[in-house]
Amino acid sequence: MWLRILFTLALTISLAEATALGNIVKSLKRELSFGTILLLRNENDADSCWTREDLPQDIPILNLNANQSLYLKQIFNSEILSIVCLNRSEGDTMEALYRNLEDIRYTPTILMTQSDTNLSALFEDCRYHKMLNVLALKDFDPEFVYSYRAFPHLQMVKRRVSHIRRYFEPQLRNMQGARINALPDNIMPRTVVYRDAQGRRQMTGYLAHLTENFASTLNATMNICWEYAPEEDVINKTAMVKLSNDGFVDFPLVIAGPDDFRYRDIIVMEISSWFLILPTEANTPRARLFSKTEAYKLMPLIILLALVLSYAQRLEEGLGPSVSLGSVWEYVLHGVLAQPLLLPHGPSSRIIYVYGLLFFASMLSCSIFNVSLETWLVHPPVDRMILSFQDMRLEQRKILLYRTEYFTIQNMFGEENFEKIRDIFEITNSSKYFQMMRGSMNPSYAYPITTTLWPLLQLGQSRLTRPIFRRSKEMIFDPLVLMTLPLPKDSIYRQAFTHFHLRTHDSGLYTLWFRRTFKELLVMGMMSYPVDNSSEPYKDLVWGDFIFVWMLYVGGIVASLLVFLVEIFYFKWNQNTTNN
Ligand SMILES: *[C@@H]1O[C@H](CO)[C@@H](O)[C@H](O)[C@H]1NC(C)=O
Ligand SMILES: *[C@@H]1O[C@H](CO)[C@@H](O)[C@H](O)[C@H]1NC(C)=O
Ligand SMILES: *[C@@H]1O[C@H](CO)[C@@H](O)[C@H](O)[C@H]1NC(C)=O
Ligand SMILES: *[C@@H]1O[C@H](CO)[C@@H](O)[C@H](O)[C@H]1NC(C)=O
Ligand SMILES: *[C@@H]1O[C@H](CO)[C@@H](O)[C@H](O)[C@H]1NC(C)=O
Ligand SMILES: *[C@@H]1O[C@H](CO)[C@@H](O)[C@H](O)[C@H]1NC(C)=O
Ligand SMILES: *[C@@H]1O[C@H](CO)[C@@H](O)[C@H](O)[C@H]1NC(C)=O
Ligand SMILES: *[C@@H]1O[C@H](CO)[C@@H](O)[C@H](O)[C@H]1NC(C)=O
């Protein structure tokens, strides 16, 4: 009799438990969107924590034991609900769970535990392994589910199943002022570290604004790990990534090409390119512009017009065709140079038509000349454009490089090609010096730059009539660089941060913070509107500008004088010979 009662009791309990899990899974199907169920248990645990009836029939089930571990994110999918049966060897099973959920630790998980399991220790372990979405069921307690609140302090929550609206409450929605640790890399303009008037260390830069706002949307406080941040220099990237993977830093505020971080947890922040900026080349001196007018190109037109006109005139007079060098040339020359001329008396309508053509040609050539002259005087062309590294070498220009970039560029070119142009690179060991030179657009060097800083320098040059630095379209180190932020492995902020970052891009906040950074750097004196000392932006015409014209003029007069003298001597000589 007692035995029967006990047996019935045991049966009810096990049934009740089964339905508890079944009910929860059924509710979770409405709450979450999972496409797979992962069942994980130790091989040694003979009886199982679940029956087939607990699980929905229409969803694929992965049944693993604690010895198996797969990189599920890559080989399967990441929309998983995992159910874990914990028994004696619970350590092993949890380890197996962590291995299987690598990079998808946010997966909702139900832990089936025994009545004597220390749940707070278990939850602490889950928290340490970045698993926030965890429910625990106790063997003999089907009425309650256990979960934990991770922020601001770890706290176990016991809930009655019948009262639950939502099993997995988002932990990150309100972090109740918990701290998020960030570490700035001190690369302008993303993050800039400085000391304020009271000597306290401060951080600004658009990445700083981004993370500060991110923290405030989670109701968290941002804590900057000053103890790891160097006072002046840029932080070592390797050291930074190590700190974040060891759990000291939640957000390493560094953005770099993906080659710098050889692992998967990166977030693409910007699409950029890496190119050279160089001091704008000098304009062609005004005097030299006259030698560039290419007026000789008008010669065929002049000859053609002169031929047509003279031929038409001879026909009119009833003469045969012949090339004559009469007054016609003068007419045509005057016409093409847009000078006034007197029409010959009473020409016929055919001749008038040819003069009309002359008039039209004169208008055309004059306008073309006028327009190009004006363009040259207002936007003079560059004298000798630098189009390649070889050009830079000929012009004795140098490129300033920060040490780490030097090796990257060396690898990019290959040893042999690089050897040919090695002497145009000048290397500095101080990132501060490099950033200062580049930020102030010191024209002694050309600098490699990405599309992150270049817009700021362009903003700086907006007050100049003529930019002092230009972006090279020919000398590009890398046309497409994905600028990424490396989050620590399995970061709990990954999803929230990705969404937040995309929203700031879409709403234009990212650009706003970017522009605001420029103003802040101006105020701090780290950037300035550069002054163009090299040449006066506006200059009146001076005598020297017409040097070629004067030379032609004087040369013409001297030549005429010589011809005149030769004519006189020839005349005299002729007279003498006839007299003799
Ligand atoms: C699981 O691994 C343990 C230790 O590595 C081993 O003793 C055991 O036999 C393995 N079980 C199975 C089913 O492979
Ligand atoms: C846990 O293991 C013990 C002994 O191996 C077994 O009797 C018990 O039924 C198991 N419990 C579960 C829930 O699997
Ligand atoms: C459970 O684990 C926590 C933390 O590991 C510990 O403080 C507590 O004493 C443990 N409780 C029991 C009953 O062992
Ligand atoms: C944000 O966190 C603070 C604790 O730092 C808390 O007092 C406050 O209620 C939280 N805000 C909201 C909206 O929950
Ligand atoms: C960065 O730090 C690592 C060790 O933390 C060191 O091996 C490496 O040489 C450092 N790199 C630079 C550029 O200083
Ligand atoms: C040349 O252009 C200027 C400015 O556009 C204009 O004022 C001037 O009349 C033009 N001269 C001739 C000859 O077309
Ligand atoms: C930079 O540092 C390296 C070694 O750290 C040294 O060999 C080199 O001379 C230094 N260069 C300059 C310009 O100081
Ligand atoms: C340009 O001139 C200003 C003063 O007129 C001076 O402060 C600045 O240093 C000069 N810049 C360069 C690059 O020489």
Helix content: 40-55%
What is the molecular shape?
A: elongated
Please count the beta strands (DSSP E, at least 2 residues each).
17
Q: Segments where pLDDT lies below 50 for 5+ residues? A: 5-18
Structural class: alpha/beta
Strand order of the largest sheet: 2-1-3-4-5-6-7
- Mean pLDDT across the residues is 84
Bound molecules: 2-acetamido-2-deoxy-beta-D-glucopyranose
| Rg result | 41 Å
Q: Distance between termini?
A: 170 Å
Q: Classify the fold: give the CATH topology of the domain at 19-163.
A: Rossmann fold
Helical segment tally? 18
How much of the sequence is in beta strands?
A: 15-25%
CATH architecture annotation of the domain at 19-163: 3-Layer(aba) Sandwich
The profile of the biggest β sheet is: 7 strands, mixed
CATH class of the domain at 19-163: Alpha Beta
Signal peptide: 1-18
Membrane topology: Multi-pass membrane protein
Protein name: Ionotropic receptor
Transmembrane segments: 547-571
Task: Give a short summary of the structure.
Helix content is 42%, strand content 18%. The protein is α/β, with parallel strands linked by helices. The longest helix is centred in the C-terminal third of the chain and has 33 residues, at 547-579.
